[in-house]
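Please, structure for the following, as tokens.
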Amino acid sequence: MRLLISLCAVFALSQTTVFAGSIQKTYFWEYEGKRYRFTYTFDKQDYDFYKGVKRDYYDFSFYMKEDPAYPVIDRLARKLQLLAQSYRLNERETVEFIASFVQHFNYRGDGKYEYPRFPVETLVEQGGDCEDTAVLLAALLRSLGYEAILLSPEGHMGVGLAVQGEIKGIGVSHDGLTYYYIETTNTGWGIGDYPDHLSSEIKIYDPGSVPGAHPLALESSPHPAGPATVSKQHEIVAVTSDHTATQGNYWEDKELVGTQTGALSSDVMIIDGRKETAITYQDGNLVKVVSRQ
């Protein structure tokens, strides 16, 4: 698809480190005037698998579906959600935060021939054209339980996010829901913002609902964190919202144990070069934890 010059992303930085069997990416982006950094390690087998899948040049919803043997998006989406929650962003802000993450990717055309990318390709290659970044954002939002589809004005593509209630902006009615447009090829576009020069005729690509999917509920608190997985133990200092501190043991990527009570789940991420942990409690309050190695 052609690039609309006024939509071209101009800010995109990343760092790449390749290990045996893995690819580590560090992404930089801005949201609401604050700069963020996020490091994630991909399994090279996942990337190679999707790189080798035969392309479908007609149904772009095909690229929002993952092979169960090569999952990528669910875990990465969860990491981004927890990062947003660690900064106490509400549900709408979390969606915009993840959209901003995608909007900062480089625009990269396909050249002479159309080449749709799977989300992991766009993530590892740190760029793509409009349908590639739209597919990536839609896949991330669907992984987090939102009703999201692809909306394609003539010669372009963005994301449609179902919203409960009305917001200012452009929405498309589909299967009883209103999907508001999200632009993915440049920064600063919010939910419902629709570039004036795009066509009013919009084609819909819908891969079908995810079980339990729901519209975005406006003015709501962050999603509660779900259960995580395994790893090693660290001694930590937990700094609460009222700036008091407690000590205890923390199992990386697992529920808290020891002196911390009422914890629902937690996760580890790299922020500003330091390993930090976002912990979600039963009442929805968040605590940031810095591990002491």
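Residues 73-86 form the longest helix (14 residues). The chain has two domains: 5-217, 233-292.
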